[in-house]
Amino acid sequence: MKKTIITIIALSVISIIGVYSWQRLTLVQEPLYHSIKATQLQADIKNKKDDVVYFYQKGCEGCEHSTPILNRFIRNKRVTVKAIDINADPSKDFILGTLGISSTPTILFIHHGKIVQRINQVFGYEDLTTKYKGYTGDL
User: Thioredoxin domain location, by residue (predicted)?
Assistant: First the structure.
């Protein structure tokens, strides 16, 4: 009887640890960026605004990998990042043609309506902050 109780307790502890570990592995962070449509970005460019714009698509593994990095960047730098889901936005000609977005994740750094920095791949925190420093003239 004593062995049965110990076995049940041990299995319960292992199960709880397993469920907790699985949840941590599959935890997807909620993004801190602000979703916009390409038409809003077109207006910002026309009005010569400064923007940091993130292009992503649902189901993109690189984008899912980038979300926690982007969230950390947004929190640490206190910067607003606008985001466009390239598959959900109807302005594909503008996204693909004018902006030259051919893959995701992509980040554009726009200064006075002109693209001055670009990241066209999965990025790390250091890559992102280095490009941002170059964009803000902080180097």
Answer: 37-123
